[in-house]
Amino acid sequence: MGESELSSILVEARRLVESAFPAAEALVARDAGGLLIRLVDSRFADLADDERKRRFYEAVSGLRPADVGFLELLTAEEALASADAFRPEGDGAPTWSERLEVAPDRSEEVRFASDLDYDLDTPPIVTFYSLRGGVGRSTALVSASEILAHKYGKRVLCVDMDLEAPGLAELFGVEGSVKEDNGVLALLEDLEYEDANPLPHILPVDDSGLLYCLPAGKYGAKYADRLASLDVELWYRERRNPLHRLVELLQQSTLKPDVILVDSRTGFSPIAAPLLFDVSDMAVVFFHPHSQARAGTALLTAAMLASKTSRPVDGEERCLTPEPRFVVSPMPSGPSSVRLAERAEQWIVEWLAPAQESRKAETSVPMHVVPYVPDIAFADRVDSDVERLGAYDAIADWVLQLTPSSDAGPSRPDGPGKDVVLEQLSFETGTAETQGSLLEDFVVTRNVERAADADTPLIVGRKGTGKTALFRWLAERPGTRSVVAVAPNQYRSRPPWSLGAEGLAEIGGQIERMDQSWRAFWLSLVTLAVECTLRDDSTDQPSLPDGFEPFERDDTELAALRKLSRALEVPRVALVASDWLQRASAGLTAQRFVLFDGLDTAFGHESGAKRRRTEAIAALLAAQAEIESRVSNLPLKIMLRHDIWDRLAFENKSHFFGRRLQLRWEERADYYRVVLKQAVRSSAFADLIAGDARSAASVDEWSREEVDAAWTTLIGERMKGEQTAFTWNWVWNRLADGNGDHSPRSLIQLFSDALDRERSEHERNPYDRSIIRPRLLITSLASVSERVFDALVNEEFPELTDFAASLEAYGRTPVPLDELSARPEDVDLASDAGLISVQDDGTGKRIARVPDLYRHALRVTRRGPS
After folding, report:
1. What is the C-alpha to C-alpha distance for residues 576 and 512, in angstroms, rounded to an integer?
2. Which of 69, 370, 389, 428 gives a 20 to 30 Å CA spacing to 220?
């Protein structure tokens, strides 16, 4: 019987049965031997089988017995008692017609597999799907599988469920090994009746032992017959579902795959619906951002968000939503690519809005763009060289999130439990000016060692890179007797002669009235600060010059200001102070740094403050260059914000070329030592990681491998729900500002917030893979973003308030600068401060990107390719 003939008979049979038995529970479906009919009706009570069939055919006149391959007529009681009774209507197949009518309920929780703290119990199922062909779906699946296997060492099983037009075997180059009775179709046919071993149907792709293909089958008459007899809806009526059983057998096979990638048929194929809505943990959806694709992909996304998969989690059924991720492919080259990517990103944001309202995760857009490359599009098989498959790395990374993690867990048989560690663990989030344990927690990097060299008079860094922490380490470390000339306002040991904005404004006015110079002021300040600080030193000091009244440690700022003002009235004060410093330096037996920090904000923000700051700092640097050779035991060391240094212009600026240190965190391991130093203050955590055979007691001396092991115990190895799979990378990327700089304080704030959240969650939902579950970093980043933004704009750069408001109003990143009403000088300052990074979009237009560190505070979403 032909396919079209059987279909028409099926439609007519359903009409006849429904008309003759309107109150009955009926199933009319296709079967290999013809029609399958099951009917539950009270009229069959007390009748023998033959009598039931006679009455059935009398009632359904027009239906030929020859067309019926299987007929079962039952009463309700018999149906309940029967092991093969078909399922109630509500448990039917997830068909396209049924799913596309259901919109997602915004009040219902959307929970993806990538949102889980734990790995899935069985290998994840990731389906590659597209509504239309020609978008590179199968090529992407094969490319991603090559990356997962040969770059990450994962065992990958690829299943060809594009039954009408299979192609995976050809792309893998194993089509010659496919036999007539092997493949998905043959397995599904066997599994309708009994279990079958899938291993003989699976083909190794290469000799690595990591990459395998389960082909659809071998084309031929037998294949066509099997395909014609396929009835997906019937599977969901039977007690035995061949699709579910196939998935179970593959997941539990001795092959032990880490992940199963499924290539689905395009369009509204009957088998695509259960793959997407019922079986898959994640679906990689391919589309080209043409207007014709918008409505269909929107409906598909809505149907997925309204579905629950058959995977149970923690004993709970139907609790996970199949997770859609999107690939825009193929993307043409040229200026139109930017416009098309922006369009696709806007659509995806709209489609996922119901999910993001209920999910407790970052609202990044799960989108990747694959460019059109003819050599790949027309290749007979995919290149197995993973170095050439970079366009598919992001897709492989999505899949990698769902594969099993190697996290060992924090508890050891002979070590403390997690509850004890959580109770003891703490992170001090105070500013560097006030942090009580700073010296204990300070990480000595190569940059720090250079900064401690007397031949490095200038340390330049952007906001938050650790200038003040370095200042305190230089000032307070044991065995030093540094002189603090200028300190940040909040520094707990700030001397009275470190003037605030009002005092410096008063000095500035005096300098103008007396036709004096900032150079004279700085030399006077250093003279008095050195004399007071080293007064009790065992070395002899020269007496202060006439007219200089000594500072006292208990002076008020006003008293110190008056003494400085009187010093400025001394004739030839700059020469007098310089002479005294030279004699004082000669009398010292060891070097004493003279430290300057807090100059960035010391002058205030009122009108004229910026001009006063520029003049004063330029004069300070010029004075350092002038006197350095004569005061070798009193080297000046000046901490300065990067943007201020860049804008300075003074005669001897070249003096600092090669002698200026750019302060930044270059090594991730060094950056992470900051948080680990605070973590090991907890004796329980220190005991927990002691089993990792540390080669040195000090965290500063740990190897990269030892840092990595302690880090994994603290926060785990892998993220969930994000594109970057590893916590080591995620934290580094998310805490970078627009210039790629990192703040130690942001790191500590992130972990402190995550620790508080872990204590709360651990009581309700214990987690033993790490002390803090990685997912909490995602939820904590938003609160950290608010704090660092406040410190940057409201405290350090209030002149950026309007520019920040314009970014927030635009609402997305990146933003074309020609669409942002901003002054060029504000753009330059925002870039220097790290609030944005400015780039060329490839078409000659300048765009501004807001880094994740500030994106949450500005409430802007990502746009464009991942």
Report:
1. 20
2. 69
